[in-house]
Structures are given as structure tokens and as C-alpha cells.
Specification:
Residues 1-11 have a biased composition (Polar residues). By secondary structure, the protein is mostly helical. The chain has helices at 26-29, 31-36, 58-78, 99-102, 109-115, 148-168, 178-204, 212-216, 219-224, 230-245, 249-262, 270-280, 283-307, 309-312, 314-321, 329-337, 353-376, 383-397, 409-416, 420-432, 434-442, 451-477, 483-486, and strands at 83-85, 91-93, 130-132, 140-142. It has one domain.
Length: 515
């Protein structure tokens, strides 16, 4: 590493096309938004009074659109909480004839209610255990399989469900099967978490608040907001980024730590922060953030780890022993090439050693490459750009890419690449993977689809994410093409990094030209 001269310090962005504080109007700058605005009068006029409406601010418009998208998502999942009365007069959940796959309404929330023993009174995550495959050689003891904050979230919703059911039995509240009540209660909190995510994205975007509408109306939200519990983590990650942007490193660390206690991926934000803080000589704020994140994660996890250690380890044990997911690139390669080198089918309790090594090594290699980019680019990259690259690298190299994981990318993508047509195209393609996935699980015996269709869509989705990564790298090395910097900003999410001078920059090899 070397200390750069004045000529190699972080250059100023391209000349600002807007006055300081002036908002970017997407209807003027983005062809898709301009075309969409025609039915309501066309792009924003030159003399329009911007920011003077007493209620409909960009933030509130984004939240209203997010609410509409979440309502549509709930209606999409509602088919899976329908009830029927069986021949014995008992009310049952109607999952007959492959309803979750035919109606494409599947949500992990519904089966986990009984699978994690949340439907039984007196149970507690990480203490309550059960035996899978009892009476067979593969029998093994199981516990709650989610990180602590997500496990406690499920347990709390189950307790609220019990109270709701007791009151509904007296006639004071509408009644239903406990699993349907549990799903609706869970969906309410998950919807609130996504609204927080959209709010944080809009606040972080600074002079581009309308970009939050991209997160609000994302096709991925329409499909996956209630597929699992991932909006909890997106809310913590997005608000952690906002806190860093507001120069509150301790609060940022607190929120990142809570996010890591719900899903591990918010911890990845500390990597890009470290690289950019090294480059700008701002290690003290990073140390505060990292310390607060680690302390918060320990505060949430230690009580369970010390008192219910076997249950607490379940999340880590299952992740180590889990084979390649149907949505992973490894499964695509294995299926289309016929190569079974990624450990192939595994017996219960067997660890896919080779797959774990390959996946971990590839991710670490990607992180090393991203670190080099962060330290060698001609202008210091924006924080959202590196965060997007790290999370995308994890998803592409990981052995598991559950469909709802794509929600992780949405806030970072909106802040890193505010190109509406491009992002909506990727999000639509990613959301459409759900269709062949559901019909693949339905099975060809029940008029489902063969694996080729599903895995073909997975490959296209992966290529689309790789394409977005290439675009981010291009804009890092050509900041004049970065829409955020063209508008006059340096790094809206950067906090102490915004417009800071470089202290450490790695020298780059210059291209050799023929003489």
C-alpha cells in the first residue's frame, strides 16, 4: 500500500447538474419513468413546485406503494391458509391437490408453525426438541433451526396466536385455524419490517428519494415478502446503513448486530465499511460500528448459547450439513453436466465437506477481489456499491439461495444502481423463478414441470445478477457514468466517508499499449 499524492486522492464527482439539495426527478432522467408518467401528465415540468405538497412527499408515496404491494403479496399467499371441513367434521388447512404449488402461494411460515412445535403450548425455541425420522437409522434430534432473533420472533407470534385464539373463542375476535391466525400475525410484522426498509432506503438516497419506490413496488416483494422471515433482516440492514449515513456509527453497529441475530448477512456490511474506512483513514468510526455490532450480537445470543447450547448450535450445524440447494449454481452445474463432484446426495448428519470448501473459498476470493476494487479504484467507490457486490457474491457462491434471499439485494441495488428499467427487469426475472420452482416441486406426475425449466430460469437469474455486478464495477471505474455522482453527490450513504480525502490507495497496473 502507498500514500497517494494529490493527483491520486479521491477525485471530485462529475460536475453537478443539480443545485445542492435539489431532488432528482426520475421522470426527467429515466426513460421508463418518463414513459410511465405520460398518463398522468408527463414528466415533471421545469417550473413545477417541488416539495410543497402538504402530504404526498416522495417518502409517503413510496410507503403507500409498498403498502399496496404488500397487500397484493398477502392476497397471493392467502390461498395457502384456506380451510375446509373434512369427512369427520373437522376443520383442516386446505393443502389438498398440491394447492401450495398450483396456486403458487407456498410460504415457510405455514408449515413451520407445526414443524418447529410452535403450535404446542409450553414450548420454547432452542429448548424444545423432537426426533426426525424416528425409528430409522437416520433418526436425529432437532431444534429450532433459525438464528436467535428470528426464532424468538416466531415464538412471540405463536404466543400472540394463542391469546388471539382464546379471545376469538369467546366471540370478541374473528376466529380461524391457529395456523391461519399465526400466518396473519406474522405477515403483519413482516410487512411493517418491509415498510421500514423502504423508508430507510428513501432516507439514505438523499436527493434521489423517489428511488425508494423501486424497492416499494419490486416484483420480489409481491412474491416473497411473506415467503419467510427475511424482511426482518432487510429492515435492520437498511436502517443500519441509514444510521451510518447519518454519522451515527454506534447506532449503525447496534442495528447491524440485531440484523445478524436475525440473519447472518447484515454482518457482511462491515467488510465494505472496513475497506472504505481504510482508504479514507476513518478507522475509528468503523471500530465503533464493528464493536457495537459484535456486542449486540453477543447480547442477543449469549443467554441462549449458555443455557440452551444444543438448541443454539442447531442453526450452525444445519448450515454445515446442508447440501446444495435446488436454486444454487452448484445444482445447476451438477444437473446440466451430470457431474456429482459436489458431494452428491447426503445421508442424514453427513457434512458436504467438498461443497463447503468450494463455496467458502469462492466467496473469500470474491471478497478479496472486492477489497482490491475498493482500494484501487480511481475514485473511492460508494458504500452501497460495495455492499451490493459483497451480498451478490455471497448469493452467487453460496450453496443455498432460497428464493426469498433475493430480497437482501433490493435495498443495496436501489442505492447502488438507480436505473429503473434495468432493476425492474432483473427483479421481474428473479420473481418469475418462483413459477417454474413451484411447478417443479409439484412434480411431473402431477402435471408439473421437469427440472430443466426451473434450473434454466435459475441460470438466467444468476446471469442477470452477474450482469448487475459488472455494471457496478464499470461505474466504479468510470464514475462519470454513475447516476448518483452525475447528479452531484459523492456518497449519500457514506457518512464520514462522504467527500473524504483518500489516505491509502493501492497502485493499479496500467494497461500496456503497443508501441
Amino acid at each position: 500500500m502507498s500514500s497517494p499524492t494529490d493527483e491520486t486522492t479521491s477525485a471530485e464527482p462529475a460536475p453537478a447538474s443539480l443545485d445542492a439539495g435539489q431532488r432528482v426527478a426520475p421522470s426527467r432522467t429515466d426513460p421508463l419513468v418518463a414513459a410511465a408518467s405520460r398518463p398522468i401528465g408527463g414528466p415533471l415540468g421545469e417550473h413545477a413546485a417541488v416539495g410543497r405538497h402538504w402530504f404526498w412527499t416522495p417518502q409517503r408515496v413510496g410507503l403507500a406503494l409498498a403498502t399496496l404491494a404488500l397487500m397484493l403479496c398477502w392476497f397471493g399467499k392467502a390461498s395457502c391458509i384456506q380451510q375446509y371441513v373434512d369427512a369427520n367434521g373437522q376443520t383442516q388447512l386446505d393443502w389438498r391437490s398440491g394447492r401450495p404449488y398450483v396456486a403458487m402461494c407456498y410460504s415457510d411460515v405455514v408449515p413451520l408453525f407445526s414443524a418447529e412445535r410452535l403450535d404446542q403450548p409450553g414450548t420454547f425455541p432452542y429448548r424444545t426438541s423432537w426426533v426426525d425420522d424416528a425409528g430409522t437409522p437416520n433418526a436425529h434430534v432437532r431444534y429450532m433451526e433459525y438464528p436467535v432473533l428470528t426464532g424468538l420472533f416466531q415464538w412471540a407470534n405463536a404466543k400472540i396466536t394463542q391469546v388471539w385464539k382464546a379471545i376469538s373463542d369467546t366471540g370478541w375476535l374473528p376466529g380461524a385455524l391457529p395456523v391461519a391466525i399465526y400466518f396473519n400475525i406474522t405477515a403483519f410484522w413482516l410487512a411493517l419490517a418491509w415498510l421500514v426498509t423502504v423508508w430507510a432506503v428513501g432516507r439514505t438516497a438523499n436527493r434521489r428519494p423517489w428511488d425508494a419506490c423501486l424497492a416499494a413496488i419490486s416484483p420480489l416483494v409481491l412474491v416473497h415478502a411473506f415467503t419467510n422471515f427475511d424482511t426482518l433482516a432487510t429492515a435492520f440492514a437498511a436502517t443500519g446503513l441509514l444510521a451510518w449515513a447519518r454519522r451515527k456509527p454506534a447506532v449503525a453497529g447496534l442495528l447491524i448486530g440485531l440484523g445478524a441475530a436475525a440473519k447472518m448477512y447484515p454482518l457482511f456490511l462491515l467488510g465494505p465499511l472496513l475497506i472504505l474506512c481504510i482508504r479514507a483513514g476513518k478507522l475509528r468510526p468503523w471500530t465503533i460500528t464493528a464493536g457495537a455490532a459484535g456486542g449486540t450480537w453477543l447480547a442477543v445470543n449469549l443467554p441462549i448459547a449458555l443455557t440452551l447450547n444444543a438448541g443454539w448450535q442447531e442453526f450452525f450445524r444445519l448450515n454445515a450439513q446442508r447440501g446444495m440447494d435446488p436454486d444454487s449454481i452448484y445444482n445447476v452445474i451438477s444437473y446440466f453436466t451430470g457431474w456429482a463432484g459436489f458431494d452428491g446426495p447426503l445421508a442424514a448428519g453427513q457434512t458436504p465437506t467438498w461443497l463447503n470448501i468450494v463455496s467458502g473459498t469462492l466467496f473469500l476470493a470474491c471478497c478479496a477481489g472486492i477489497a482490491y476494487v475498493g482500494l484501487s479504484a480511481p475514485v473511492r467507490p460508494r458504500l452501497a456499491q460495495l455492499c451490493f457486490l459483497v451480498v451478490a457474491a455471497f448469493l452467487l457462491t453460496n450453496k443455498v439461495w432460497s428464493p426469498q434471499y433475493s430480497l437482501w439485494l433490493v435495498p443495496f441495488a436501489v442505492l447502488a444502481i438507480p436505473r429503473w428499467r434495468l432493476l425492474l427487469g432483473w427483479m421481474l426475472l428473479d420473481a418469475l423463478v418462483w413459477v417454474p420452482r413451484m411447478f417443479y416441486y409439484l412434480g411431473t406426475d402431477h402435471k408439473g414441470l421437469p427440472p430443466d425449466w426451473f434450473l434454466g430460469f435459475v441460470a438466467l437469474r444468476d446471469l442477470a445478477v452477474v450482469g448487475l455486478c459488472v455494471l457496478v464495477l464499470r461505474e466504479i471505474y468510470r464514475p462519470a457514468e454513475d447516476l448518483v455522482r452525475v447528479a452531484g453527490d459523492d456518497d449519500p450513504a457514506g457518512g464520514v466517508l462522504d467527500r473524504a480525502r483518500d489516505v491509502v490507495v493501492l497502485p493499479r497496473r496500467r494497461a500496456r499499449h503497443a508501441v
